Amino acid sequence: MNDTNDIFNAEFSRQYDVSNQRLKEISDNLHLLISLLLRDFPTDSRVLCVGVGTGTEIVRLAKEHPTWRFTGVDPSPDMLAVCAEKLKREGLIERCELIVGHVDDVQPQSKFDVALCLLVAHFIQHPRRGGLYQHIADRLKPNGQLIAAEIAGDMQDPTFNGQLKNWVALQQAFTQRPRDIEEVKAELNRRLLLLAPRRTEALFLDAGFASSMQFFQSLLIHAWQARKSAE
Fold first, then answer.
1. DSSP character string of 68-84
2. Is the C or the N end of the chain the one with fewer CB within 10 Å?
3. For the segment 95-142, what is each residue's pLDDT rounded down to a tens digit?
4. Cβ(139)–Cβ(114) below 8 Å
């Protein structure tokens, strides 16, 4: 995994939600669709949130499903501190367990109905990314579901620069400063590893998911629903 400790520090964590307000329309659309996909899960569902960050997905789903329970795991103690404060403020902390670490730090006998891994996987170098999905699958019940979102794209594809141009426009709106295409491409190469969407779908299958369906795309942000085998 790339070293991101210099990114997810205390200052960054405190400003994270404020900064993301600029992308609220995209985030709201993604979370609306996630709520739709999970609408019929049992009232006693257990949800694993991998790379939970400041807990946005927990807050949204916990308010919609007052009897669901959540486990959030994240390697950044600063992000989890902000998450815990938010959950206490919203009156949700009693239904949540927060773990500093990675998904393999969650007990494998803890079986979940749903796992969410939102905008996390692109920080993990392939082929270790497949290990992430395997660890998630190991902690899901048979027929459990994964909702995964990541920045994805084939940087070797001749059309990628056209996609990147639109991504740069989004970045300019996000940072409120001019961005150069080559600067953004270098940043992607330094901080992230983009995989073509078809490669991510292959990793789901390799990890034991019986099927996957892409349900969302906003420029380079892609999201899938994957179902674990019934075993």
1. -EEEEEES-HHHHHHHH
2. C
3. 999 999 999 999 988 899 999 999 999 989 776 787 999 999 999 999
4. no
